[in-house]
Fold:
Amino acid sequence: MRNRNATAYRFLAPYLLIFSVFWVWPIISSFMISFQATRTVPWRFAPGFNWGRLIGDPAFFNALKNTLLILVIQVPVMIALAMVMAVLLNSPLLKARGLYRFAFFAPVVVGEVAYSAVFRLMFSLDFGIVNKLLNSVGLPKVDWFSNVTPAMALIMIAVTWRWAGYNAIILLAGMQSIPEDVYEAATLDRVSKLKQFFYITLPLLKPVIVFCLVLSIIGTMQLFTEPFLITERGGPGGGTETLGLLLYRQGFRSLNFGYASAVAYTMAALAIAITLVQLWLTREKQ
Amino acid sequence: MSSLSSARLRRSIALHLFLTPLALIWLFPLWMMVVFSTMPDNGIFSPGIELLPHGNFVDNFNNLQRDTNFVGAIGISVSVAVTYTFLSVLLTSMAGWALARYQFFGKGVVVGIIFGTITLPYAVVLIPQFIMVARDFQLANTWVALIVPPLFNSLGVLFMRQSFSMMPDDLFDAARVEGVKEWRIFLFVALPLARPMLAALAIILFLASWNNYLWPLLINSQPGLMTAPVALGTLIGLTKVSWGGIMAGAVMLTVPMLIVFVLLQRHFIAGIAAGAVK
Structure:
């Protein structure tokens, strides 16, 4: 490596320009906007205006509650499912591996709009294939869109379908980077496959699992398209409204940039807290 | 010995008995997307259970084209995704090269800011980005607004930095001794060597752009300038709309990507897994 300021910055300049203008500056700017009253011209500095409103706003707490509920239920279920997929896809006993991989990984390329549309049709009350299939095995229809609990369940099912395979890809790559001889030694010592999973795979995979968790938590925290399109603007009656949707509504429907920025920074604070927990969980043991 | 292999056989059967229904459930939404796209609307909204494709795709596509200019929107999406991918690969590999290969003043700060902010949610920058692009730069409903702001994405920089730093020094030093300029070394020595990584990066970036919904929805909402996901999204929730048409659009957005996925699976998986295995 050589010390060359001019050359290095010539290579860096185009990216750094975009990075500063469209990422670094907005991070700072968003923080400042959250302390301003933005529905007056010109905007004025009013430190308590948005944050004061936030802590007394039932819509905010509803969105926070919904987001955390999805986070707490959907993320662990999805990671566990991804783990099952990865372990089984990694099994030497599996035939036609390519077909199974395709089935689980294909949703990774499907856009949010396309799959939201399909899920709406599949789960519709009278003509949805899911209710028809439930009926045909003697179960009652579920009204997925006008009751809060099924609507939340639907959002979680949709997100899990879309992202489980994505996490399975990451976990599988992690598993394949564990040296083979560790398992060979364990097999020679007659350690069962199940014990090998719990005493070798899981501990060695811990950083990758934590990485998946953080990625999924941050993704779920910003959840927008699914409640926007599937349950139609967070319906029924705000029952599936998430922080992402509240931000959209406040920022781009009511053009209340200050308040929306406060909502955005609440997400950022949660993300920073989660990242710190991650760093703490995967810290090097002395 | 025979008891061992019969135990293996039983385990293998159990594995397939468990995994096959799960795989079918996972494929089901994609299968139904195709089935719906070939059914007339009165077939989609009928009480019977239909699990096989019909022959109505072309009619559905015509209905979609009547509801919104989807062909035009696909054209915009393709142009944006191709341009974005090219620019992003270029910018991030240049930056990654500098971070991997040179010692320079302020390097620690640059790397620190990139790593330090990578887990911040995108939602944080959405409002200021919108204000900046729409109000300050007056660029709403332009190509620039669709392509340039998403170029900030820093995952590519870290990925390329990693790729370049794994290459042996002597390779580049030999060229330097010959007096080859740095940008030529980058273009003609380093980039060709990084081809598999560039392919993985390009695929992931193309997909991200192709499927991007929120930013194009906010910044380009005029009918003539909507990307395909935005055009399709505006139809969902309308009362008088052809759902067969929406499904035809969903198929047109999804199937090309599925084909790319099957053909380039290795690069795809490398691109996704790159984030985790450091």
In short: The beta strands of chain B are 102-103. The mean pLDDT of chain B is 90. Chain B is about 75% helix and 0% strand. The CA atoms of residues 39 and 56 of chain B lie 5 Å apart.
